[in-house]
Amino acid sequence: xxxxxxxxxxxxxxxxxxxxxxxIALANGVVHITGRTTGxxxxxxxxxxxDRLVDTLVGLLVxxxxxxxxxxxxxxxxxxxxxxxxxxxxxxxxxxxxxxRRNAWLAVVGVAHLVLxxxxxxxxxxxxxxxxxxxVVRWPDTRLRTLGWATLPLFVGLSALDGLGGATGVPAGLxxxxxxxxxxxxxxxxxxxxxxxxxxxxxxLLPPAVIGILLAxxxxxxxxxDHLPLLRRLVLVGFPVSVVGGVPAVxxxxxxxxxxxxxxxxxxxxxxLTGLAGAVAFTAAVAWWSTTVGPxxxxxxxRAARAVGRRSLTCYLLxxxxxxxxxSAWALGxxxxxxxxxxxxxxxxxxxxxxxxxxxxxxxxxxxxxERLLRRLTYGQPPVGAGAEVRP
Length: 392
Prior knowledge:
By secondary structure, the protein is mostly helical. The protein has helices spanning 11-29, 49-61, 66-87, 92-116, 123-136, 141-164, 180-217, 228-253, 263-290, 300-310, 312-327, 340-363, 369-379. The radius of gyration is 20 Å and the shape is globular. Residues 167-172 and 383-392 have low confidence and may be disordered. The chain has one domain. It is 69% helix and 0% strand. The chain crosses the membrane at residues 66-83, 104-137, 191-214, 234-253, 265-289, 313-332, 338-361. Residues 215-380 form the DUF418 domain. This is DUF418 domain-containing protein. It holds the Pfam family DUF418.
């Protein structure tokens, strides 16, 4: 099967994916903070003025917004793969087998990532989600919408649990993670718990995935000029809903308000629910912007984001490769006792390194090494050019 070339790829999905990875870096950075008592959204309760500023921006624009956006794009890509498979003459059983292999191997990569590097891995869940999407991707719109609405409580519940994950009143960081062996053992425990929680996690990912499938069926990101009224509505409605809905949790996370018993669950759930609107709005904003790109192509920043988006699996894994030695207590330990401003600065630096790597590979017209490996495992052949990647 011939690889998709760079010229065949739409601009908006790649740029959106590349920008989402910055959000994921910012969201994941706080997970590495240890030795600080944390509250709602896992923010230290005694942060500095700089920490509070960062907490506000990240809480309103990134937390519970970047991952649903990435999930939406993952599902969108599934439809694109099926469409291109059909255009190249593959039958449904052949395309289904391709997707099953791709997602099974993605789950294996996720297991390796979780055990060796980062206990907050999302690739295992995405691989399992992809296997489920094979079963539902050809459902009619009405049935898909029903699935999305039915699983929305799972999405909101998981978002609330994630938002309250640090609100324990005890120092952040699991006991024993101060050593390499202890951290490795905890990652093993996380893997076991991930297996048991997988049905709930995959179910919670379905609402943004359903939205991604529905958008892909209409080629909204590939042909954004044909959908400008829809894109404008998604942006002009979604962003205000996302920001306003995130305010209560951010006020609690920064200590501006003290919540009565039980209200922390409510504000965390609201933060997650409205974050889905923010994820859709940001994706739509990128598509809307792409309609303004002239014949000379996108600017430097957009080209860099596109390069990252085309190598999103490599760049996601590279984030962990850089985060772990920098922030882990058993390595350089920059996360020990750190505030969110410091960790976010590290996250931006880590993202900048991934941009540099992606841009260099783009100049050489090469895929990322993780994309090359996953494509080889999926198709049984080496990729051709930067467009040959298989995206998470």
